Amino acid sequence: MFPSVRMNETDMMPHIIEIFWMEKLRFTQYCFLEISKIPVSQLEVSSVDRPKSISWALDQMAAFDRNFAFYLPISIRFASFFFLGKVDEAEIEKDIESIRDKFTPPAFPNGFFNINITAAKDLMVPPADPTTSKLMKEWRLTLLKIEERLSRFTEEDAYRKRYVSLSGLHTVPGAINVSTEYCHGLWHNHASPYIKNES
Predict the structure, then answer these.
(1) Which of 170, 167, 126, 118 is nearest to 147 (CA)?
(2) Candidate from 15-19, 114-118, 167-171, 195-199 with smallest mean pLDDT
(3) pLDDT value at position 51?
(4) Which residues contact 42 (CB under 8 A, 6 or more apart)?
(5) 3 state DSSP class of 84
(6) Which SS3 state, helix, strand or coil, does residue 11 take?
(7) N or C: less crowded end of the chain, CB within 10 Å?
């Protein structure tokens, strides 16, 4: 089951949604910090053994979250036509487990657990080259949009609303987790192996 005590006293959104949103924000902040350490010359590097560059992975991660921001209200509204009943925490946990079984994510890096962030507005964009800095600033704005939409959910909505996507029908916490795990997979496969001294 999920923690009964709030991870962060934000009071912005229902606790069950907040758990997974804080995880999403921490992982994004972790990526921002690591991205800033990568020399510009390494961002676009690709080869026969490495067909996708770090820059490609970052673009895909940011694009996925942009799509999530756009489709979240549309998908929630669409799913409401199916008169789906309320779920409990056990069913949300089952949804999360199925998502993680699909993405089979590795453990989060150690540096992830040292990050304390309570809202998208607190995402720090570290100094970087102009192109990477622009990507991170726009990505931050995307997460602000998602957060604003999530903050509209009531406690009842958190257990009743569903999100329809190509990956299936998910609870709202599950939909957030899909975003986190998708980005985590891209980072793990296409960025992390090529960052020296990743924290």
Answers:
(1) 118
(2) 195-199
(3) 87
(4) 54, 194
(5) coil
(6) coil
(7) N
Q: Within the chain, where are the H helices? A: 15-35, 40-43, 54-79, 89-103, 130-150, 155-160, 172-190
Torsion angle (degrees, nearest 10) of CA 16, 86, 67, 17: -10
Amino acid identity of residue 35, one-letter, is I
Q: How high is the pLDDT of residue 53? A: 94
Whether the CB-CB separation of 180 and 24 falls below 8 Å is answered with yes
Q: For residue range 74-131, list pLDDT tens digits in order.
A: 999 988 877 678 899 999 999 999 999 998 888 888 888 899 999 999 999 999 999 9
Which class for 85: exposed (0-12), middle (13-18), buried (19 or more C-beta within 10 A)?
exposed
* One-letter identity of residue 155: E
What b/e sequence results for 122-150 when a residue is b if at least 16 CB atoms lie within 10 Å of its CB, and e otherwise? ebebeebeeebeebbeebbebbebbbeeb
- Measured over the CA atoms of residue 33, residue 25, residue 144 and residue 71, the dihedral's sign is positive
Instruction: Please check the confidence at residue 5 and state whether its pLDDT lies above 70.
Output: no
Q: How far apart are CA 157 and CA 151, in angstroms?
A: 11
Do residues 149 and 72 touch, judged by C-beta distance below 8 A? yes
Beta-ladder partners of 168: 165
In 3D, which of 135, 162, 127 has the Cα closest to residue 56?
135
